[in-house]
Amino acid sequence: MVIARENKYDISEGDLVIVPKGVRRSILAKTDMEILHLVSPPPSEKDHEKSLKVESDLQTAWNPRMMTEEGRKMFKERFGYDILDPLK
Fold this sequence. Notes:
12% of the residues lie in helices and 10% in strands. With 88 residues, the chain is low in regular secondary structure. The protein has two domains: 1-30, no CATH class; 52-88, no CATH class. The protein has a three-stranded antiparallel beta sheet, with no helix packed on it. A hairpin with a 2-residue loop joins β1 (2-4) and β2 (7-9). It is extended, with a radius of gyration of 17 Å.
């Protein structure tokens, strides 16, 4: 199933899904799934300048206080509020 905005679409093998820029979307997979994600226009060199180190911790439950300042800023720009405000 692909969810784009408030709409849900059942998909199956061989389906092509196009989601326009700026549309919030997610994918719910109930089975193994292979996906090819194309981005147009292609990312620039500047898009790849920043590298990230990611450590996975599957034991500790996540909470918003774990978010970096940069992450909180990006969250606020995207969703319009500071994720820590409800916790104050």
